[in-house]
Amino acid sequence: MNIKCMIVEDEPLAVEVIQDYISQIPFLQLQAVCNDAICAMQTLKEKQIDLMFLDIHLPKLKGLDLLATLKNPPKVIITTAYHEFAVKSYEFSVLDYLMKPIEFSRFMAAVQKALPVTSNSETVKHPEEKDLFFSVNKKKARVPVKSILYIESQRENIRIVMEDREIITRYSITDLENELPDDFVRIHRSFIVSKSKIDFFDMQDVEIKGKLIPIGRNYKDFVKNILGN
């Protein structure tokens, strides 16, 4: 399954980042890059586009105004530095709303939503088998979801502890929580754990591989319902 995509973006650095991300995803085929909405409208008339990466603040005509003019738009992923347009954008049934600077793992999660959900699709059937990617020292680190023991928030960074290693990356624990499968549960404002990796627990802590992880006061009832009495 190949998805033909285009970038509508007037910032050269943002274009460069998105182009790089697209080049790393085999099923994406970049067809065009436009720096304004007028170019985008013409391209949509001339080419088959399945997915559009669309900035909101464009010259001449804004991104959401462009969407309002399209009768049969392709699938759309918003890429922007402005959070205040998120609610408005979903009126146009966009797939996702990515805030700059965009992490590759977040980009990949958004792109997965463009894949058709059929028995023959390339969509990951078992979420625990998928891989996530994070920026570490200017490289992309692959993190198999099934290897994660727990995640710890460290202010602007998160620490992802796996069975054989750990990484620290700049990422939001809340954003990551939304990308993880049901096996993962938030037990504290600073901790997410894999339920299947828990060795012992009570209503104060869970223990994973000898590590005691506290259960937050506001999470105790939730954890009790999830893990049992």
From TrEMBL:
Coiled coil: none annotated. One of its GO terms (molecular function) is phosphorelay response regulator activity. The modification 4-aspartylphosphate is found at residue 55. The keyword ATP-binding does not apply. Keywords: Phosphoprotein. Signal peptide: none annotated. Residues 134-198 form the HTH LytTR-type domain. It holds the Pfam family Response_reg. The keyword Zinc does not apply. Residues 4-115 form the Response regulatory domain. This is Two component transcriptional regulator, LytTR family.
